[in-house]
Amino acid sequence: MRILNKLVFGGLVGLGLLPLGLLTVWALGEGWHFPHLWPKRWSSTAFLQIFSGKMGESLWLSTWISTCVAVFATAFGYITGHFVSHHPLKKWLLRLAYLPFVSSPVILATCLLFLFIKIQLVGTILGVILAQWMFAFSFAIVFFVPFWSPQMKAIEELVYTLGGTALQAMRHVLWPMSIAALRMCFFQTFLISWVQYGITLMVGGGEIQTLPVLVYFYVNEANITFAAMASLVLMLPAFILMTVNRRHVWRD
Amino acid sequence: MSQFAGRWGAWLFGIGAIFPIVFSVGYALLYSVGWAGVLADGFTFVHWANVWTKNEVLPSVLFSAYVSTTCTVFSWILAASFFVHLHRKWLQSNWGMVWYLPFALPAMVAGFFTFQIFSGGGWLARLAYHFGWITSPQAFPEWVQDPYGIGIVMAHLLTGVPFFLLFFRTLWKDAIVDAYSELSIALGASISQTRWRVQLPILFQRSKGNVLLYFLTVFGAYDIPLMVGSQSPQMISVLTLRKFERFDLADKPEAFIMALLYTAILCAILLIKNVVDENPE
Question: Does the CB of B222 have a partner CB in chain A at under 8 Å?
Fold first, then answer.
C-alpha cells in the first residue's frame, strides 16, 4: 500500500511538472510536425526574442502596466480597506467590493467601453491601466479588510493615547506592521494585471500588445515556438511569487 | 490614519468599486430598452423579446452553468481525493510543491497548453499514432473546440485542482483535521470511516464559500473558452463579446441584456455565498 501511495504521488509530481516541461520543449524546438513526439531540431530563436523584437517590447509593456496597476491598487486598497473595515456598514460594503473582483472582465469592459471611448482612453496605455486597476483595486480592498482588524485599530489608538501623532503612528507602528501585507498585495495585484487578456484587448483596441495578447496572436499565427516562449515568460512572475512566498505557503 | 482613510477611503471606494458597477448596469439597462446607444429610438422591449426567441442566450447561460458546475465538482473531488489519501506527503514532502506549479498557469496559457495536448494534431494524438491506435489527426477524438466543452473543462482542471490542493493544505492545518482523525481512530473508527465521516465533511463544510467563488470564476471565464471552446454553444463571456462586436447593430442590445443576466446571476451567487459564510455549519 505504501509503495502504491509512493507511485501515485510520484505520478502526480510528474503530472505537475508536465506543463512546464512541455512548454519548454515547444519553446526551444522547431519543425515539430505530426506525428513527431519531439521537435526535429533545437533553436534559441524564440528565447532571443525575449530580449528584442515583439516579445521584448511586450514584456516591458506588460511589466510597466502591471507595476503601475499594482502600485496604485495596493496603495488605494490599503486606504480603502481601512475605511471599509471600520465602517458601520462593513458587511454590505465588503459585498459591494466583491462585485468588480469576481465579475467577468470582458463583460464589465463591454459595458464600460462607451465611457472609455468618451474620455478618449481607448487604445491608450493609460486606459488599459485604469481598466485593469478597477479589478485589482477591488481585490486589494477585499485583501486589506481583514488586515485592518480591531486589534490593529486598538494598536493605532494606543499610539495616540500615549501622545503619538498620526504621522508617528504611521511611520513607527502601522508601516512596519503593514510591509508584509503590502508586499503580498502588490504581488497579487501585479499578477491580476499581468494575465489580463480580454479587458486589455477591448480597452487597448488591439494596439496595446501585452504578453497575453501576444500569446493569442502567436497561437492564431500557428507559431507554436513563439507562443510557448511567450507563455513561459507569462508564467515567470507567478513562479517568482511562489518561490518568494514559499516559506509562508509551504513551510509556515 | 483613521481620519485620512475615512476621508479618502470613501471617495476611492465610490470611484473605484461602486461607480464601475453602477455605470455598467445602468448603461446596459438603458441600452437594452432603447434609451442609449446607436439604436436609441425610444423605450422598447423588442430586444428583450428577441433574446428569448433567438434561442442563443439561454443555451449559452445553461452551457456556462454546466461547464462551471463540471469544473467545480471535478476539481474539488480530484483535489480532495488526492489530498485525503496522500495528505502526509502533501504536507511533508517538498515534491508536493511541484503540484502548485500548474496553479501558476495563466488562463491563456492553460488554454494553449490544453489545445496542444488534446487537439487532433496534439501530443496525445501523436502518442496514439505511435501506439498504432490512430492513423491520422482526424481519427483522434474531438476533445477541444467540441460541443460538450471537454477542452474547456480539461483546461480549467489544470488550474482548479492545484487551487483546491493549496486551499486544502491551509484548511487541513487550520481545522486541525489530523487531531480529529486521530480521535476518530482512537474511538474505534476505521481509516475509511474517518475519511468519509470526518475528513471529507470538514473539507466540504469549510470550502463551500471558495467553491462558489471558483464556480463564478469559471462561469465568467473568457480566455479558455475562446481558445478551446466551440462556436456553438458558446460560454456567456464569449457570446456577449461576439454579439457586441458583430456588424449587425441589432445584436448590440442583446450583448447588454446578456451582461445584465450575467450580473443578476453573479449577485444571486454572491448572496448565496454570504448565507453560506454566515452559517458555516
Answer: yes
The Cα–Cα gap between B255 and B258 comes to 5
DSSP letters along chain A, please? -HHHHHHHHHHHHHHHHHHHHHHHHHHHEE---TT-SS-SEE--HHHHHTTSHHHHHHHHHHHHHHHHHHHHHHHHHHHHHHHHHTSTTHHHHHHHHHHHHHS-HHHHHHHHHHHHHHTT-TTSHHHHHHHHHHHHHHHHHHHHHHHS-HHHHHHHHHHHHTT--HHHIIIIIIHHHHHHHHHHHHHHHHHHHHT--HHHHHHHTTTS--HHHHHHHHHHTT-HHHHHHHHHHHHHHHHHHHHHTHIIIII-
| Per-window interface: B 175-194 vs A, CB < 8 A | none
Inter-chain contact B241–A106, Cβ cutoff 8 Å? yes
pLDDT in tens, A83-131: 999 889 988 898 889 888 888 999 999 999 999 999 999 999 999 999 9
pLDDT at A41: 86
CB-based contact B230:B208 (threshold 8 Å): no
pLDDT for A26 beyond 70: yes
Answer whether A137 sits within 8 Å of B16, measured CB to CB. yes
Give A35's contacts in chain B (Cβ within 8 Å): 125-126, 129-130
Q: How far is A103 from chain B (nearest CA, A)?
A: 7
Task: Tell me if chain A has a CB within 8 Å of the CB of B115.
Answer: yes
Domain B55-278 class, CATH top level: mainly alpha
* Ranges of each domain in chain A: 50-251
Q: What is A50-251's CATH superfamily?
A: MetI-like (1.10.3720.10)
| Residues of B with Cβ-Cβ distance to A249 under 8 angstroms | 100, 166
Tell me the Cα Rg of chain A.
Answer: 22
Q: Which of A2-16, A30-44, A161-175, A228-242 is the least confident region?
A: A2-16
Nearest CA in chain A to B108: A212
Domain with CATH 1.10.3720.10 in chain B: 55-278
